[in-house]
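Comment thread on ticket #2218

A.B. wrote:
> Attaching the input chain for the structure job we discussed in standup.
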Amino acid sequence: MVWLVDAAYRGDYRVFVRFNDGKESEIDLENYIKSKNEETVFAPLKELKIFQTVRFDSDLDTIVWANGADIAPERLYEMAS
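C.D. wrote:
> Ran it. Output below, let me know if you need it in another format.
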């Protein structure tokens, strides 16, 4: 099982992530976010100003946004590979 131990916004739609196994990566989430349907919790994140509010949540061990959106750490790990 993998989870995040740290994450930070890096500009545009990029987020730096560090996993519990030591793996680190800078992930570009632009295509992931922009491919989501307008009715999803990800729709507001298409606006860069809102995407930039991404933060690491140590209780959930992943990245989250104020509107309740999050991405599973397992999915982020796949993206980092």
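A.B. wrote:
> Thanks. Noting for the ticket: Residues 4-80 form a domain with the NE0471 N-terminal domain-like fold (CATH 3.30.2020.10).
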